[in-house]
C-alpha cells in the first residue's frame, strides 16, 4: 500500500484505517451536490456535517465574506472592543430567539466551544447568584455535546469519553427517552414521564442545591437521531423549574431550521435558560459558535457588583468579523427562503420514502427522523432489535455502494445518518433514496 499523500489525522477514525483505504476526496461543491476528485457528482446527503444548510457555493455568502475581508478581516471583542458585524448579528440572533426569551449571546468558534461556554457560564451563574455549590451537570446517555473536556464529560456515548478519562467530575447521565430502545415501555408518553421522573430522582439523589444544569439536545443527533416524545421537554422544563436547575438546550444541530422548526426547543414549546448554537449559524462557510442566555442569567450578572461577575472566558475568535458577516448573510437566506418550512416538507417526503426500507431490508430495524435529520437503525434481528456489530463494516458498505450510486450518506456505528442541506428538493430526495436503496440491496 502506498503511503498516504498527506500528514493529518482524521477526526473520529483510527489512524490505521487509512493505511488500507484511500480517502474520499471532496474537491468542489455546488448547491446540494459535491464533486470528488474523480469528477463524480454526489448528492450531499449529510450537508457537510449537518451544517451546510443553505447548500454549497452560494454567491451571497461568498460576497459577504469577501466584503468583510475588504473592510476588517479581524479584530477582537475582548474588554470593551467591538465591531459592527458582532453587534448586528447579536441583535439578529436575539430577534430570532425572541420566542425563547433569549437576551444575550456569547460568541465562540464552533459547537464544542458553545457547549463549553454554556457549562462554564452555568457554573458562574450559580456563583454569582449566591449558590456556589451548584456545580453538577446531568445529561442523557445517548447525548453528544462535542469534544472539549466539559462537553465530553456530559457526552453519553462511551466511545467519546473512555480514551480521555478522567473527565470533569460532577457529571451524571440518565436514560434517554428513546422509544425504539429502552428498558421501560413502548408507549411514548409513558416513556416521557418515566424519563422525566428519572431526571427528578437524579436531582434529588444528588441534592438539588448541588445541581447546576441539565443539558440535552432537543432532538439527539450524533446519538442516532433520537426524537423524544412530545411531552418530554415540557416535563423536563417543569422538573428543572421545580428544583431551580438550569435547562441548557444544545441546539448545535437542531438550531436554524434543521428539525422543521426554527429551533428544536420551539418544536417542543419549551424555553431553555441557555441555548448552544453553531453549524447552521453560518452553514459552514466560516466557523462560528454562539451561546444564548435568558433574562434569568442576565439578571444574575447584572445584579452582581463584585469581581466574581466578570466573565473570564472568551476565545481569540469570539465574534470573528468574517464569521459574523457570514452568519448575517446566511441567516438572511434561512429566513427569506423559509428553510425551516422546507426542511419540514422535504423531511416528511424523505421519511415517507425511507419507511419502506424497514419492510424491504432485514437489516433496517427502524427509520426515524424529524425534519431533515433522519437515521436508519441497523439490526441483526428486527424482533429483538439487537444492533448490528459496528465492527463488521456493514454500515460503511451501504454508504460505499450508495456513493457509487451518486450520494453521500454517513455511516455512524450501527446507524446510517442523513442530514442533507435544508434547500433539498424532491429530485434530490429521490436521487438520495435511489442511491441508498442500491446501498442496501448490494451490501
Ligand atoms: N453539540 C452537538 C449537539 C453536536 O452535534 C456537535 C457536533 N456535531 C457539537 C456539539 C460539537 O460541535 P463542533 O464539532 O462544532 O465542535
TrEMBL record:
UniProt-listed Pfam families: Aminotran_3
SUPFAM superfamilies, sorted: PLP-dependent transferases (SSF53383)
Keyword ATP-binding: no
Keywords annotated in UniProt: Aminotransferase, Pyridoxal phosphate, Transferase
GO molecular function term, any single one: pyridoxal phosphate binding
UniProt keyword Magnesium present: no
Annotated signal sequence range: none
CC cofactor: pyridoxal 5'-phosphate
Matching InterPro entries: Aminotrans_3 (IPR005814), Aminotrans_3_PPA_site (IPR049704), PyrdxlP-dep_Trfase (IPR015424), PyrdxlP-dep_Trfase_major (IPR015421), PyrdxlP-dep_Trfase_small (IPR015422)
Family: Belongs to the class-III pyridoxal-phosphate-dependent aminotransferase family.
Protein name: Aminotransferase class III-fold pyridoxal phosphate-dependent enzyme
